[in-house]
Structure formats: C-alpha cells, structure tokens
Design brief:
By secondary structure, the protein is an alpha+beta fold. Helix content is 16%, strand content 29%. It folds into two domains: 3-106, no CATH class; 113-180, Beta Barrel (OB fold (Dihydrolipoamide Acetyltransferase, E2P)), CATH 2.40.50.100.
Length: 184
C-alpha cells in the first residue's frame, strides 16, 4: 500500500548531544527522528546490538523518491564521508553545509503500529504530511462509493504526522497514518 513518509534521518536519543552535531549534523537533514529503542529485525538492529554508530534515512515514500530526497541523500552521504575524514580529495567536491537539524521527533518508527481504517472506501486526507497535530484533529475521511462518510479519522494523540496513506482506495485494516511524538 503506497504511503507518503517524511525525508528524515533517524538515530537513537543517546546519540543526540546538544552542541555536538556529529554525523547527524554533517548529513544535513532538517528532521531528526530519534528512536529510544530499535526493534529486532529492523535494518539497523545489528549495528545497534554491536554498538556501531548508525544513521538511517527515510524518503517521501509511496514507491517514489522526490528530487530533493535524492539530492539530500547523495550530498548528505558525501558530507558525512567528509565529516568522518573518509572522502578522498575533499576539496574536489563542491558541497554546501546542508541544513542543520531544525526539529527532533521521537518514536520507534514501527509502521506496523499505524492507525488503521475501520471501513473500505476512498480516503481523502485533510492533514498534510509533516503537520503537527493535536489529539482530535482531523487527519482525513473515508467515503463509500456513493459519497457517504464511512469513517472520520482523527489524531489519537498529539504528534507529528510522519506517514499518511498516499492512495485513495482503502480497505478495512489498511494503515492510514502514523504519528511520532514531539517529546522524548
């Protein structure tokens, strides 16, 4: 089921130290998604278990990548390699400093815990991906084929909208949205 996600880098909170940007700052993403835990089976679980520093990126999703995501990942990788002293002839690469982390959000990033549809139909979003929402704010509505409202979907908590269904057709049980917390 195609969905949209935010472009972000993720890491664990213990790797976040004010004033010490490290790799996350060198990469140049504006959004940092901090995970207090890393669930087994995730792509970074082995690195976490071995104490190896890691950085994970998220693209917009929906089986597509935006040009700005591609540029962030390409230049971010080069900036990170430069930061780590691993880039041969660093003066050869014309790299801007990138953005600094402007927002940190929290959560385990488990998309299996997304809020699900209670009905079949067509999903029409009212909230935008990346929006800060409050409990009870409208995320969107599922309508039947005849246009009747089937389910109004509201935020179950305060948070930051990190995933939003990207196609209109929805079946009962399909993931609709996921929130990350604004506080650790």
């Amino acid at each position: 089921m195609p969905s949209r996600r935010l472009s972000a880098i993720t890491t664990t909170p213990e790797r976040i130290r004010p004033g010490v940007p490290g790799g996350r700052g060198a990469f140049g993403a504006e959004l940092l998604w901090a995970h207090a835990t890393v669930n087994p089976g995730r792509s970074v679980a082995s690195a976490q278990e071995l104490g190896v520093p890691w950085l994970y990126t998220e693209a917009y999703g929906g089986r597509r990548i935006r040009q700005e995501d591609r540029e962030l990942f390409y230049k971010g990788t080069l900036r990170l390699l430069r930061h780590l002293g691993m880039l041969a002839n660093p003066e050869r690469w014309s790299l801007d400093l990138g953005s600094s982390v402007r927002r940190t959000i929290y959560g385990d990033g488990n998309f299996d815990r997304s809020s699900e549809a209670d009905a079949d139909g067509f999903f029409v979003p009212q909230a935008a991906l990346g929006a800060e929402v409050r409990r009870g704010d409208s995320i969107g509505t599922i309508y039947s084929l005849d246009g009747a409202e089937q389910q109004r979907i509201c935020a179950e908590a305060d948070g930051y909208l990190v995933m939003l269904l990207g196609t209109p057709v929805v079946r009962k049980g399909d993931p609709i949205y996921l929130l990350a917390s604004l506080r650790q």
